Amino acid sequence: MELYKIHPRHYVAVDCVILGYQDDEIKLLLYPRSFEPHKGEWSLLGGFVQENESADEAASRILKQTTGLEQIFLEQVASFSEPNRDPEARVISLAYFALIRIDLHDEECVRENGAYWIPIRKLPNLIFDHQEMFKKALKKLQQKAGYSLCGRELLPEMFTIIQLRKLYEAIFQREFDPGNFRKKILSFGVLEKLSVKDATESRKGAFYYQFKKDITEKILIGSSGFSVKLNV
Amino acid sequence: MELYKIHPRHYVAVDCVILGYQDDEIKLLLYPRSFEPHKGEWSLLGGFVQENESADEAASRILKQTTGLEQIFLEQVASFSEPNRDPEARVISLAYFALIRIDLHDEECVRENGAYWIPIRKLPNLIFDHQEMFKKALKKLQQKAGYSLCGRELLPEMFTIIQLRKLYEAIFQREFDPGNFRKKILSFGVLEKLSVKDATESRKGAFYYQFKKDITEKILIGSSGFSVKLNV
DNA sequence: ACAAAAGTGTTTAGATTACACCCATGA
DNA sequence: TCATGGGTGTAATCTAAACACTTTTGT
């Protein structure tokens, strides 16, 4: 302990890049910061790491507070530790990224926090280095989408292959050939065709699918854009 | 500031997974911890983040101290923040991983720190969660090797294709077909054949290669093991 | 000349891509 | 019946992988 005492201690915060999917767009949960510095400017949802919790736990806590959801996908992005990143005091921040199903989240919670879902195509300026946190999180999402179908985290229980494709097009900001995409995805054998159709988009209607219950999801989608492999 | 003051502050450390390549093996720089707790047990090289430095700077500082090298490849791995990971006091640790050319490092420095290069195949037990840090760093190395030839970081200026293959075999712990590996690597067009041969391994001798000077190295090597693509 | 490692070529199987075409349905 | 998106089939192209073969050189 003696040896440790000569070293400084720092505030440690977590900031969450909370991403969801709605109306064919990836959206980010932001709120106008409620205190100085930079009061009123857009900020990620964050908070300080307390004595008896890990950073992961702190991030979960914040997620619960702001969306009402538990047990959702959460992953470290990076640490941000420039001495002056927060002009008020030295705060070392650990960025997290979360994927949530907007259809499940608690709108009450979100409204209470004054938070909004903002489409990532029209992102406003964010405080501090939050823009960079977002960029890194988006890159992580693209990576993740590259080796696992992230429909489970972002789409409703039932969805059409077309909806899944639109999700992937939103994530990668490019188009995929409808026929090839469908074949590729179905070749993994992780989706189950239902007998129900979504008739809102066309006369013919598109069949709904859902993830098979027992699948330990391990899928590889290559980097070049979209080349996929089933791993286990 | 008022708002921040109600929150606790924590010691923040960096721990470096310093990897090198020698004698056809990936090696990790470790030292027997010189103070309690766990005095004498194997530990990564680390230190505390000071007032006026970022964590990246702290990691660079530690690297300089222990290997004598500057400007070397260094990347964040993850944060470790379990409240009791260090039994002595709460320390939040940011793990880094570094790749260094063992042929360049300062042996004096290493010896002064009582550090040793340990082949990763025969790793001893490490203190705290250092084993986990190492595992994550190794995974990162494999990822990195998957999209960029990391010969620059780990091999001497000049090397043979066979040496590069051995490096990849050490990183991925599997063998690659010599012919296919050579063709793949050379197809990137980032290596320059020299007129000198390494005659130590065979009568015929293998030509040395070096990285072309002007290359902004962007290579993709797929995940399935070894499928590669030139990106730009 | 021959052994042994360096380096080249060839063949096959599988994946990716582009795109033509058929299908089901409500208006 | 026809327009529209949903869904299937196929041929051309590219890539990975296995492995046979040729080259170079010291002894």
Short description:
Chain A is of the alpha+beta class. Chain A folds into two domains: 142 residues, Nucleoside Triphosphate Pyrophosphohydrolase (Alpha-Beta Complex), CATH 3.90.79.10; 70 residues, Arc Repressor Mutant, subunit A.
* Count of individual helical segments of chain A: 7
Series of H and E elements of chain A: HEEEEHEEHEHHEHHEEEE
What oligomerization state is this entry in?
A: homodimer
**What is the level-2 CATH architecture name of the largest domain in chain A?**
Alpha-Beta Complex
- Mean pLDDT of chain A equals 88
The helix content of chain A, as a percent range, equals: 25-40%
Q: Can you summarize the main beta sheet of chain A?
A: 7 strands, mixed
**Radius of gyration computed on alpha carbons of chain A:** 20 Å
What structural category arises from helix and sheet content of chain A?
Answer: alpha+beta
Percentage beta strand of chain A: 25-35%
**Overall form of chain A:** elongated
- According to DSSP, the number of beta strands of chain A is 12
List the helices and strands and how they pair.
The structure is a homodimer of 232-residue chains.
Chain A lengths: L1 H4 L3 E14 L2 E8 L9 E2 L1 E4 L6 H13 L5 E8 L10 E9 L7 H6 L3 E4 L10 H18 L3 H4 L4 E2 H12 L5 H10 L3 E8 L7 E6 L7 E3 L6 E3 L2
Parallel strand pairs in A: 1-6
Antiparallel strand pairs in A: 1-2, 1-4, 2-3, 2-7, 5-6, 8-10, 9-10, 11-12
Chain A binds a DNA duplex (27 and 27 nucleotides) through α7.
